[in-house]
Design a protein that fits this description.
This protein is of the alpha+beta class and 226 residues long. It has 2 domains: 149 residues, Immunoglobulin-like (Sandwich), CATH 2.60.40.4070; 64 residues, no CATH class. Helix content is 28%, strand content 35%. A hairpin with a 5-residue loop joins strand 5 and strand 6. The N terminus is likely disordered. Keywords: Bacterial flagellum biogenesis, Cell projection, Cilium, Flagellum. It holds the Pfam family FlgD.
């Protein structure tokens, strides 16, 4: 077993450089709710005018009042839409700075490059002992790392690529398992895997991060930014 240290900026950059080129992608969803509302209103008003009682026609003031109300509603809707679009644009601008950066998200894979591998662990409570078991895709033990005592929260670690027998493991994707305990009591631990942000995805309700082949994640699901 060996004790690991937090990755330096150089180490993280070297590992991420082997994940592939930075790319950006985004998608947006727009709606013509305001136009639809206006069309429905005009259709209804036209129907009312066609079917009105010739002996008791609609008052011009009433028609003008309804048109004015529609104009007010339309203006409010457009203002709300503009504010929403501006807020979304500001958020996307902020999140765009994450493209190319490494992030830790929940997952049990660790990618070993020629520069090493980075993983992480998320703890709901402090643990006096945390161990990481790394196996190949067949389940054969490759390396056991002793992270020692850790506080509650998210932590990262570096695997130097060495196996327990001292040999250098082949670059590739490995599996990891986290075991944590505080004294004799087990502590639930979540393994974190490293991914590179490759794009920003804007949906109808939120703006999320495309993390390479790992998938799409919300900002709340990102535990660390490297």
């Amino acid at each position: 077993m060996s004790t690991t240290t937090n990755p330096t900026t150089t180490t993280a950059s070297s590992i991420l450089a082997q994940y592939g080129p930075r790319t950006t992608s985004s998608s947006s969803v727009t709606a013509g709710a305001v136009e639809d509302m206006q069309n429905r209103f005009l259709t209804l008003l036209t129907t009312q005018l066609k079917n009105q009682d010739p002996l008791n026609p609609m008052d011009n003031a009433e028609v003008t009042s309804q048109l004015a109300q529609m104009s007010t509603v339309q203006g409010i809707e457009k203002l709300n839409q503009l504010v929403s679009e501006l807020a979304g644009t500001a958020q996307m601008t902020d999140m765009a700075s994450l493209v190319g950066r490494g992030v830790l998200v929940a997952g049990n894979q660790i990618t070993l490059t020629s520069s090493g591998g980075i993983g992480g662990v998320d703890l709901p409570a402090a643990a006096s002992e945390v161990k990481v078991t790394i196996t190949d895709q067949s389940g054969v033990l490759v390396r056991t790392l002793d992270l020692g005592a850790l506080d509650a929260g998210s932590h990262n670690f570096v695997w130097d690529g060495k196996a327990d027998d001292g040999q250098t493991a082949q670059p590739g994707i490995y599996k990891m398992k986290i075991e944590a305990k505080d004294g004799s009591e087990p502590v639930t631990a979540t393994a974190l895997q490293l991914g590179q942000v490759t794009g920003i995805v804007k949906g109808p309700k939120s703006t999320d991060l495309q993390v390479g082949d790992l998938g799409i994640f919300t900002l709340d699901e990102v535990k660390q930014i490297m």
